[in-house]
């Protein structure tokens, strides 16, 4: 297409011809490359952090996962920690903006320029086009994080004497929570604040607000004057709010149930109010944030409890939020389809609205492809070459492997103590999992195949027995 | 409806008003009750077999599962073994007939009589109505089992000197294989014939032919003269044949891959041809039959291999066959839906035919409900009260529990050495799992809710983001 021959113009033309998914993938890879070099430099980190450790940390930060093979407070300089926070905001709010943008389209095949023009022209975001939407996403994010930081500073981290240190801890954890990143400044994550209701409450609120997505926040804000009539809200908003609430409550109840029977487990010898606080926090955190207020390992949780956490990690947060996973609405669609089938219906009905069959189909595709991908990851984790001297423990049981891979794919960051013990092959598998899981299999595939025109052949229908 | 008041007539009227699913459930429960009393009597078994052991064995036989807490050759008399074979045929061919019958209807709500009349009148089975179909199912079954018995007697179990014993072993194993029951006469199942190609071949063929279902066999037989043109076959037949072949091959390749890395595993120190024979047989057998030619335990298989077996057990055989699981066509439908989604299509296309959305919806419902049911089973297995003296080993890891529950739900019968070690609570969970898994969640629910008219309310469509 381009008639000019300078490399710079060629690059510019190439960039303009990228689709949004392709643009996202290319940008992500570029940020990781630049971030790695920056973080590995002595300005940002101690000698313990080589290129490999920096690459893993940057990938984990930009995908807001939180899996880590370094100790953030010890191995990173203040500038390094600031860089990390910047990467987390870029990854969290950046993808929030991109997915919100893509939600406006049914198909994802046109070029970026075209899209941007279309978005501006059609005002399909309801708040005056793309620019105002992006601004609103940023303003919402910084307001929420700001309020959280103030509350944490004043009432939360009161045990930290140094004001600057206390402020940085408050700000960093709010950034990490709102973007569902799960990075902490301390080696034990938030275990030291297990019984602090302010820290629990603020972090959990940040996670939930960041996880439900800008469209839902915007819908709630627009209708704030007449919220008694919930019917004004869109089906999407109601579905996100209800499934988020149900998942939090049932996750906590489930953990209370499974961990009752685990001798030596995390809620042994706790008061009932501690039980509730710990399980609620863990239930909220497992769906993508990845903070923990109790030590996580195969010893401190029962098999059943770990399985429940795996399911919560798989489901993840809501679409257009800062979290990962297959998304709450995908899960709700499949549950709706299941209920419809069991009732003998032939269409999916949720909240008295019929869900289009194409949505159900997409949900099936996302879930199956994601499940297959995670299982392949777990299979691959075990078979890589062992570089001498690297691994201190080479055999993990199947549940530990599956948990770790799900944690990476769902960009959760909960860790049973496996990640740092893996050899480089295993850590590579996790990095690929984080990248694929963050972008989502659909976005990734449309980045690869997006430009190819889809053949539209009609085939005759034929029944099969199932 | 009934104007007469004698209990017998009331019972008869009640029976006639049952739907087919209700009739199936009631008949199944009755056969289990009668069979238990019969098998527990001294005519059929030694003193070691009480009512509980008899109940478990009969449930396992009528659901063609093959999980066992007794030693068939030692604890059952010849009459007991004959009863077991009878129960297996009843369960296998019986449900084959019923599901083949139900496949003729889209909805399952009319009464049994009505159905039978309709079936006779409409000749919807293409071979002259219900009577001829049932006859054909029986004749096909006995022909296949007969041929198998002759081959096994003449070339297979040649190491058994006593002719009567050899005949009974041949007949019993053919019945067990064609009906996908997986019961063996010996404590080690078929481990002693691991390297015998005739035994491997005959049993594997019986399993596959029994598993693909009567409709497929009938379609192949009808078109036998012009099989070069595969397009004459129905979509259902082609789909069943292709997914069966693919699952067998990929299952075997997968096992070869995962077990390569398992030190001390079952294919260590084997020749390449033994590798192929063992993995092929195990891949075929895992999708519902449940025979094993190698010792099965958490020690002899890798975690990844056991996971693969769990997936194969979950998928199971084909609809209208003697096997269980969610069915090959259900799996193929979901894979088709996944492929369509990843390609950006809005309809499911398999073999150049469009699959109706209602079929996709049913597939989603079956898979989700089944997966949730099996996971609940695995959670419940661990928490029952321990009756003193019963269990010799009370803690199993998560993978062992999930494997055992999947084996029961898929009516497979592969056992890691868990079943006999469980307490009665755990064995009860397995029995319920076998019963539900054999009938299928859809059939069971339509037995419960079948008579209730389904409200047909139209709701407006609304999009959600996933
Ligand atoms: K995270
Ligand atoms: K079986």
Automatic annotation (TrEMBL), chains A, B:
The chain crosses the membrane at residues 20-39, 51-70, 82-106, 134-155, 167-186, 198-218, 239-257, 304-326, 359-383, 428-449. One of its GO terms (biological process) is metal ion transport. GO terms for cellular component: plasma membrane. GO terms for molecular function: monoatomic cation transmembrane transporter activity. Keywords: Cell membrane, Ion transport, Membrane, Transmembrane, Transmembrane helix, Transport. It is a multi-pass membrane protein. Pfam families: TrkH. It comes from the Bacteria. Coiled coil: none annotated. It is found in: Cell membrane. This is Potassium transporter TrkG. It comes from Cyanobium usitatum str. Tous.
